[in-house]
Amino acid sequence: MADAGDVGHAIRFARENRLDIAIRGGGHNIAGYAVCDDGLTIDLSNMKNVRVEADAKRAYVEPGATLADFDRAVQAHGLATPVGINSTTGIAGLTLGGGFGWLTRIYGMTVDNLVSADLVSADAAWIHASKGSHPDLFWAIRGGGGNFGVVTQFEFELHPVGPEILAGLIVFPFQQAKQVLTQYREFVESAPVELNVWVILRQAPPLPFLSSDMYGKEVVVLAVFYTGDPAEGQKLIQPLRGFSNVLGEHVGAQPYTQWQQAFDPLLTPGARNYWKSHNFTVLGDGALDSMIEFGGKLPSPQCEIFVGLIAGVSNGVAPDATAYAARDARFVMNVHGRWNSATDDERCITWARAFFKASAPYASSGAYVSFMTEEEHDRVAAAYGSNYPRLVEIKRRYDPENIFHLNQNIKANKGKTHSLIERRMA
Fold first, then answer.
1. Quick one: angle between helices 177-189 and 285-295, nearest 10?
2. Which of 45, 20, 96 is nearest to 406 (CA)?
3. What is the model's pTM?
4. Given pLDDT bands bounded at 50, 70 and 90, which one contains residue 414?
5. At what angle do helices 285-295 and 345-359 cross, to 10 degrees?
6. Does pLDDT of 416 surpass 70?
7. Cα 329 from chain centre
């Protein structure tokens, strides 16, 4: 698409020719919904413009923009809003699924900072959605995914951030994982919301601050991020260094945009991916033990388990304030299966599924839809909890024929998907 005007034409063409519609934003999600066979892909990736009104602390963002595009534009004014942790992520998919990252503890989910959105509906009508205009639709798109229309522009509230923040990695031996994780759990209970610390269990990549004999060995990594004065941040994170024997660390003041790209090398294009995810209100001993068990038998050098700390502002938002309902979640865990060869499919997928099952008894309700795969349609209703019936009603209002179904689908009519094959047979 060249601009928003093309979207309506594409929707009308697809409907007239009874074609499935796939919607591609940044193309980052691993479920594969951005393309389809024998259908039409509405490719928004060329629509990357980010317009910033610094005095008003607002950004107007087209749906093809990646986080790199967004961060670069807003950081030119010393501003930001909570988004993800990889610069290659598309702003559209991230936002519509809920969105969280390093700034979530202090400023909430991405959807908590969405002020308005322009959409093209299933009948190719242009709609401006906000709290004052189509408030039901505005509620639904804040977590409800691409079920209700094609967003052609997002308006975000911005906050002063950077341009330099304190961030980096502290690496510990995997043999001391229980010690590190138990102390981590205690530490974050009283950490200020300006400080965020995530956990990664994986094989050590060739980081320059690690001894080469550690490469490829399982490690526990604490990823730290602090938005305030770097000197104060160093004081706050000092206790982390006492959790165990530090194998290496690289923590210091750096541009926010640089830190937002730090994990990009772990998500280069071309690999095979299979993800699973749980929410947690607490990290009990059982949850930690399951992480350690499966972190000790990673099936490929790229597989990892990460725990994102999101406790803070988001927990004070009512579960029914937005379609994203998991406001009790304090941690989000992603079982990130990733490998290169199809011959490893079964081994890596089996590992991810087994860990997902083993950790399920310790998880809380809900699910983060952006981490769900194409096979997890049975989790959609559970992901939204008590918000699901309202989402179904709004879907019935704006897309009763389920034109937008290549997503974590909310069905207006139970069991009705309106796939290409079904419509051709009708």
1. 140
2. 20
3. 0.93
4. low
5. 170
6. no
7. 14
